[in-house]
Amino acid sequence: MQEKLKQYIVETFMYGEGDIEPDQSLFGGDIIDSLGFMKLIAFIEKEFDVELDMSEVSMENFDSLNEMMKTISKKTEA
Amino acid sequence: MSRRLATGVLHDLVRSAAADRPETPAVRSGQGEITYGELDARSNGVAHCLAEQGVRTGDRVGLYVDKSIDSVIGLTGILKAGASYVPLDPQGPPARAARILRDCGLEVLITSRKKRGRLQQILQEELSLRAAVLIDDDDDKARGELAPLDVVLRGEIRHEDDPPDTCTATDENLAYILYTSGSTGAPKGVAISHRASMAFVKWSHETFDLTPDDNVSSHAPFHFDLSIFDLHASFSAGATVCLVPQGMSVFPQSLAKFIETQKITTWYSVPSVLIQLLLHGRLGERDLGSLRQVLFAGEVFHARYLREVMASLPHAKFYNLYGPTETNVCTYYAVPEPPANDDPIPIGRPCAGDEGFVVDEDGQLVQPGETGELLVAGPTLLNGYWGDEEKTRRVLIEGGAGPLEGRRLYRTGDLVHLRNDGHYEFHGRRDNMVKTRGYRVELGEIEAALNRHPSVSEAVVVAKPDEMLGNRLEAWLVPRDAPSFDEQDLKKFCADRLPQHMIPERFFVRESLPRTSTAKVDRERLAGGQF
């Protein structure tokens, strides 16, 4: 799952070039902007079959791949 | 000859706040805070470094730093050296930064550790750059990396009691040059004098009644003109500027928490950010009692969203500020109460000493109530576009005989009408400039970039209106010979040349594009998607 998410981020926001670390700051590190954020949420909802409200995610629980995966799995377990 | 009162210069605002209240916090960020006394002393030090690098009154110095306390010190230091600051989009592609560096003939740049990699890329281009001040960096390796530039490291920047005496800037000098999207593909530099900026800064300080007790948000990046209020109106009042941490603005919930914990009293941003706060910020769970006023600008705020935002922040006053970068802000409207219906929110009356005139296509005044182009006269106007007299002549005109005689007027390109109640109402643009998330975008700049792609024969970019974002961008392409395009490749091509907000969301490829009877591309049909 993490690999799939990473692949999407690299393809969509880095145009297939480069790599990201699991703990890398994606929003603070100017890789994803506000429009990208909406696309990312839509992708996650479709791909992982979860409903993710924008009000549930924050700088603390969504800024890196690791944090995103934790937040998503909490939702899928619930 | 008429005598004009001196208005003072921007950097004296920091000096005088430091003299009055040296211990008041001037800037606060996620990393900490700095008092007016420290900001004054450290920016003096930056100004001395710049003077030692040969910067003199009237020169221009680039600012290529992520938003931070250091970037505010750098910006203030540039002004104290007598120079004008040229903020470069810290997130934008290096190729565009290089273009601006070249256009502006920048020789000295203030930058930071995090930007070293991008700066190395920029240095591969032919430029007049000869020195870089690394404001937060003591790594000696930078000297080798950035050769042949003269590199000044953090340790070499001292605290100083006074700015260098080479600074003789008056209100006639340029304070900053803000680059905006240009229709022919090259960004254009809006050159603003201290006098013009101070006219707006003094007006906004008084109108919004800022005091040393205020905590003012800084949401917009420094290359965006909303930052002029955030920084300089706050300095004028000795208030505290609270920098929104990078990346936070995409998370409405984090922003709401920021407003609460920083006790923000005055918020200023584009409407789309406020809409996100409303829809996803869980405002009801926060104590936002400190927030006494919300200023918005940069794009149309649709009444149905504004109504809800106002209802969720009942203690705050709301103001619509209007003005292209070329005028700072030239009209404003105090929203008296949540709008009862979905009629457009007016842009209000002229302010800061400015006057407005509505003219038809021949430049003749129209009757009150009729729609025409808004011309602005007054103290807040730009000096011109940097290094482009022709573009300047096209927008800065001398009024002919009649009521406009003798006035220096800026043509906004915006269509408005004057309502019965004396407020202007905005109707749209005369040309191909659009707004997306508050950013000004010339569709021609994107088209010029796409036309440089080796496989593109013709490119047209259209804007699809979107209530939340302003507009979404779509590109229509005619290929040269290869029948297919890789969308990833096209996006990457754009990302190397344009800031992120200018990259089209979707690309469509056709063998030909629809034309109007005059053989122009039929943009309306493309925007309607009926093709």
Layout of helices and strands:
The complex is a heterodimer of chains A (78) and B (531).
Chain A: H1 2-13, H2 34-48, H3 59-62, H4 65-77
Chain B: H1 11-20, E1 25-29, E2 32-35, H2 36-52, E3 60-64, H3 69-80, E4 84-87, H4 94-104, E5 108-111, H5 116-122, E6 131-134, H6 141-145, E7 150-152, E8 174-180, E9 188-193, H7 194-207, E10 215-218, H8 226-237, E11 240-243, H9 252-261, E12 266-269, H10 271-280, E13 293-296, H11 303-312, E14 317-322, E15 331-335, E16 349-350, E17 355-359, E18 372-377, E19 384-385, H12 389-395, E20 396-398, E21 408-418, E22 424-429, E23 433-436, E24 439-442, H13 443-451, E25 456-466, E26 470-479, H14 487-495, E27 506-509, H15 523-527
Parallel strand pairs in B: 1-11, 3-4, 3-5, 5-6, 6-7, 10-11, 12-13, 13-14, 26-27
Antiparallel strand pairs in B: 1-2, 8-9, 9-19, 14-15, 15-16, 17-18, 18-21, 20-21, 21-22, 23-24, 25-26
Helix pairs in contact in B: 1-2, 1-8, 2-3, 4-5, 7-8, 9-10, 10-11
